Amino acid sequence: MLATVSITDLPAALQKIGTSQMDMYTGALAVEVIFEEVTAQLTAQGIFLPAAFAAWVAARDGYVEVTLSDTSRWVLRLSDNPEQYIHLHPGRYSPHSLRIKAAALKTAMAYKAAADSGLLSGELLPDINAVRGMAALSPVRSLEDAQHILKIISLVTVSK
Predict the structure, then answer these.
(1) CA 118 to chain centroid
(2) pLDDT-derived band at 159, boundaries 50, 70, 90
(3) In terms of residue numbers, what domain contains 113?
(4) pLDDT-based confidence at 3, cuts 50/70/90?
(5) 93 near 99, Cβ under 8 Å?
(6) Does the pLDDT value for residue 160 go beyond 50?
(7) Is the Cβ–Cβ distance between 141 and 148 less than 8 Å?
(8) Residue finishing a domain among 44, 73, 95
(9) What Cα–Cα distance (Å) separates residue 27 from each residue in 2, 72, 96, 98?
């Protein structure tokens, strides 16, 4: 979790995000509600226990998609962690999700961490480029070139 990472450990933490793109849930369901709805669906089908879930997913090419009350779609996979055996993430192009580039997410997370640590100057473009440097990313030329980044920053900085 970003809140527990020190500013000096941030570059290493951001590397774990990778270099591809992903889907970010932007809907109104709280994390707890998402977990409750997924759990309820799996329990109703008799596949919530680890062995049953593993067999169910294996029989379906390693993943299953479920739809929640807000129409968002979520992909379920078997996790490497036996205690938290369900890996859950938003489905590609699901309602209430946004397809984002890893570099934009890294920038937004570094920006939030820098803001929380009082390290921003208040000048948007220099601040974005400073945090991109912390994340080992190249600078952006202009704010016009950074619209995707600005959108992700706005989502990350208002999220709880």
Answers:
(1) 24
(2) low
(3) 9-25+99-158
(4) low
(5) yes
(6) no
(7) no
(8) 95
(9) 20, 8, 5, 10
In tens, the pLDDT along 42-77 reads: 999 999 999 999 999 999 999 999 999 999 999 999
Q: Is-contact 105 111, C-beta < 8 A?
A: no
**Cβ-proximal residues to 38 (8 Å cutoff; 6+ apart), any chain:** 66, 68, 74, 76, 86, 88
Place of tokens 């590397």: 15
Here the tokens at position 28 are 């109104």
Q: What is the mean pLDDT of residues 126-149?
A: 94
Q: Hey, what amino acid is at 7?
A: I
| Domain assignment present for 63 | yes
Domain count, the chain: 2
Q: Which of 9-18, 44-53, 123-132 has the lowest average pLDDT? A: 9-18
- 4 lies in some domain: no
pLDDT for residue 7 is more than 90 = no
Total H helices, total E strands in the chain: 6, 5
- Which residues, including other chains, have CB under 8 Å from residue 121's CB and lie 6 or more apart? 127, 130
What is the token pair recorded at 64?
A: 């299953």
